[in-house]
């Protein structure tokens, strides 16, 4: 009966997007991880509304992305963002948040881990549990992490790429590479600046990456019109972007992600390697949606690669599953 007074939630606190899952209602929020402040330092908008202001605001408004490389870079902004998002999903005015489960990158330091825990506690949580992102992604992808069976999960988010081999509710080997979706967007911005003297914004680069970006040649190459500022004469300019150009722009970063997967395979114990031959590699996170990334990895590893159902929500669904049955998943939280 007392459960109605509590609003227990699971949070995927991502560099690009934050997702929140409620114990009773599933995923209840999916918003960009960004906050807009006025000149007095007070938040004026959070999430999607703040993202609409990003790179378009005047001197009276500044936008802040409180997470960088998967961890909190601006503690105050992160607290405002988490608090505002939790309030927006609060089910009843009298309900309180008793338990929060937050996923964190596997490679964060103890100081960064405590910063995440403190942020959750400051918004009123009585109990805070942390679960590593690759473990949450594996659970969200439908993998039974309790089995003595080697599973490789690759979670490509906004700030980090998490690569892990999981068996018996534990991470046998993990590698956290601080290169993911945001770095690909940065590569696209730099490419068009160098090769076309066109300055584009972060939002435009994100749209290019999502719509025509690819890791390997496509059966039919894609094109799209983009707008930016000509660096030569300083006036707005239209340009036709092609998927082959974007592939060239992000090629080096994609190669580093794939090389990290190969290094992790080299560090995997032989018996678990045998399991991965059968089970393949599972991709999760927004980066898994990069066109033909699975084919690129298969070409270089000769292993089957599958993409999790709805990879964008795999981590928060796994974190929500941990929240729903903390006793069953006690071994995977800290």
CATH architecture annotation name of the largest domain: 2-Layer Sandwich
Seen as an oligomer or otherwise, the chain set is: single chain
| 3D shape | flat
Could you state the CATH homologous superfamily of the largest domain? ATPase, nucleotide binding domain
Radius of gyration (Å): 20 Å
Please state the structural category. alpha+beta
Tally the helices: what do you get?
A: 10
Residue stretches low in confidence (pLDDT < 50, at least 5 long) are none
What is the end-to-end distance? 28 Å
CATH fold assignment of the largest domain: Nucleotidyltransferase, domain 5
Helical percent range?
25-40%
What does it look like?
The chain has ten helices and 18 strands. The chain has a five-stranded mixed sheet, sandwiched between helices. Strands 13-12-11-17-18 form a five-stranded mixed sheet, sandwiched between helices. A three-stranded antiparallel sheet has the order 5-4-6. It has 334 residues and is α+β, with helices and mostly antiparallel strands. It has helices at 48-53, 75-88, 110-122, 133-140, 181-196, 202-212, 243-266, 270-279, 293-301, 314-324, and strands at 9-13, 17-22, 26-32, 35-38, 43-46, 61-64, 67-68, 71-72, 99-104, 127-132, 151-156, 161-167, 170-177, 198-199, 223-230, 236-242, 281-284, 305-307. It is flat, with a radius of gyration of 20 Å. 37% of the residues lie in helices and 27% in strands. The mean pLDDT is 89. α2 (75-88) packs across α3 (110-122). It has three domains: 2-135 and 315-332, Nucleotidyltransferase, domain 5; 144-179 and 255-309, ATPase, nucleotide binding domain (Nucleotidyltransferase, domain 5); 181-249, Alpha-Beta Complex (Actin, Chain A, domain 4), CATH 3.90.640. α9 (293-301) links the parallel β17 and β18.
């Amino acid at each position: 009966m007392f459960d109605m007074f509590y609003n227990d939630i699971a949070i995927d606190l991502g560099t690009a997007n934050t997702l929140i899952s409620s114990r009773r209602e599933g995923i209840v929020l999916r918003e960009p991880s960004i906050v807009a402040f006025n000149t007095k330092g007070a938040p004026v908008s959070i999430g999607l509304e703040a993202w609409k202001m990003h790179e378009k605001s005047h001197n009276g408004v500044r936008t802040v992305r409180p997470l960088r490389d998967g961890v909190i870079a601006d503690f105050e902004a992160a607290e405002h963002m988490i608090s505002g998002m939790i309030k927006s999903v609060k089910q009843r005015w009298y309900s309180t948040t008793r338990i929060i489960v937050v996923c964190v990158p596997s490679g964060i330091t103890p100081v960064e881990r405590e910063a995440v825990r403190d942020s959750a506690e400051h918004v009123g949580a009585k109990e805070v549990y942390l679960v590593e992102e690759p473990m949450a992604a594996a659970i969200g992808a439908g993998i039974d992490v309790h089995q003595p069976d080697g599973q490789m999960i690759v979670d490509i988010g906004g700030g980090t790429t998490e690569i892990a081999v999981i068996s018996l509710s534990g991470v046998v080997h993990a590698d956290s590479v601080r290169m993911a979706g945001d770095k690909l967007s940065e590569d696209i911005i730099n490419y068009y600046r160098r090769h076309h003297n066109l300055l584009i914004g972060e939002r435009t680069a994100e749209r290019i990456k999502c719509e025509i970006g690819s890791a390997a040649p496509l059966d039919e190459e894609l094109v799209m019109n983009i707008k930016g500022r000509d660096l030569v004469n300083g006036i707005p300019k239209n340009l036709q972007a092609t998927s082959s150009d974007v592939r060239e722009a992000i090629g080096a970063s994609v190669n580093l992600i794939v090389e990290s997967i190969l290094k992790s395979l080299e560090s995997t114990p032989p018996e678990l390697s045998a399991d991965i031959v059968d089970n393949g590699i599972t991709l999760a996170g927004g980066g898994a949606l990069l066109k033909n990334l699975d084919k690129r990895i298969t070409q270089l590893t000769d292993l089957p690669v599958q993409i999790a159902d709805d990879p964008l929500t795999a981590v928060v669904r796994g974190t929500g599953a941990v929240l729903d049955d903390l006793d069953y998943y006690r071994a995977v939280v800290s």
